[in-house]
Write a structure and sequence with these properties.
Order of helices and strands: EEEHEEEEEEEEEEHHEE
Largest sheet: 13 strands, mixed
Radius of gyration: 20 Å
Distance between the termini: 35 Å
Number of domains: 1
Structural class: mainly beta
Number of strands: 15
Helix content: 10-25%
Length: 300
């Protein structure tokens, strides 16, 4: 591996990135409590490389414009992809509960969160953890508020993209990258990979190129992932024990649930209007249904 990978590279002001990638809208609220207990985790491997990716940034140099900041942990046996913002919040919330053991309210969101206009909202790409082991990909999906009983996991063969390599290049966080394109699950994608970093992985479900993928986006520029830093320090790669309580499912079933929740969370959560009567009692009113068009990363 290239010896330049020594410390975290966060030269954000020097990065030229995508500023126009915007994902679909959502009305799904994020979970109030994830039950991801830091005292109950299993270490499954140790990182050889950790990469930080901006997910759908408006300005790559400003983390407050990201939908999410995500991490790729590459170990000898296990590769993990997950939200840095969510993981950091869970860690801080665990400390908060230790300091407030008798609290009757939920801990607030602690730490960075990205864009202010989505701070209370759920995205399946932020609230899922992906593990790659022995040629298999497993996704643990934490569902939005009031739908946590649908938390699910599934395993599939590691997806393979059929890449076409091109000769043009660009530099990303100091590494010369080559362009590659593919059609994957209904969308056309452009990726930029670094041959000097011999890791055949990338953000989310992308991989299989002769070098680490540092940037990838769909041709409609609805979704984008771009590396903002990497480090070679050792970190434990962990799996939460609470995932044992998630329902075993399939990618197709989880995809359909995520679609239904994004299109109409109110209907899925059986959300009703409520009023307070003269006696001060809450009275349940009519059911609410608000449909939103949904444009997922995977179209099939």
């Amino acid at each position: 591996m290239n010896r330049r990978i020594i410390t975290v590279i966060f030269a954000l002001a020097a990065i030229c990135g995508m500023a126009n990638a915007q994902p679909k809208s959502t009305k799904c609220p994020r979970p109030l409590k994830t039950n991801r207990n830091f005292a109950k985790m299993t270490v499954v491997d140790t990182t050889q490389l950790r990469v930080y990716y901006a997910f759908c940034p408006q300005k790559i140099e400003d983390a407050t414009t990201y939908i999410d900041l995500q991490r790729l942990d590459v170990g000898k046996r296990v590769v993990k992809y997950y939200s840095h913002f969510v993981y950091a919040n869970d860690s801080l919330v665990a400390i908060w509960w230790q300091q407030h053991p008798n609290s009757r309210t939920s801990a607030p969101w602690l730490g960075a969160i990205g864009r202010k206009d989505k701070e209370d909202l759920w995205s399946e790409y932020e609230w899922s953890d992906y593990f790659i082991e022995n040629g298999q990909l497993t996704e643990y999906c934490t569902m939005p508020r009031s739908l946590e009983s649908y938390n699910s996991w599934y395993t599939e063969n590691m997806p393979k993209q059929s890449w076409t390599l091109h000769n043009d290049t660009q530099t990303i966080i100091g590494y010369k990258c080559q362009r590659a394109t593919c059609h994957f699950r209904g969308r056309d994608f452009v990726a930029w990979f670094a041959p000097d970093i011999p890791v055949k992985h990338g953000p989310w479900k992308f991989g299989g190129l002769p070098g680490l993928i540092l940037k990838v986006y769909d041709k409609e520029k609805l979704y984008s992932f771009e590396a903002i830093g990497l480090e070679s320090r050792r970190h434990p790669i962990t799996r939460f024990n609470c995932y044992k309580n998630y329902h075993r499912s399939t990618r197709e079933k989880v995809w359909k649930m995520q679609r239904a929740f994004n299109e109409n969370w109110f209907k899925a959560a059986d959300y009703h209007k409520a009023t307070i009567d003269a006696a001060g009692n809450m009275v349940q009113g009519e059911a609410v249904s608000i449909f939103l068009p949904y444009n997922p990363l995977e179209l099939e």
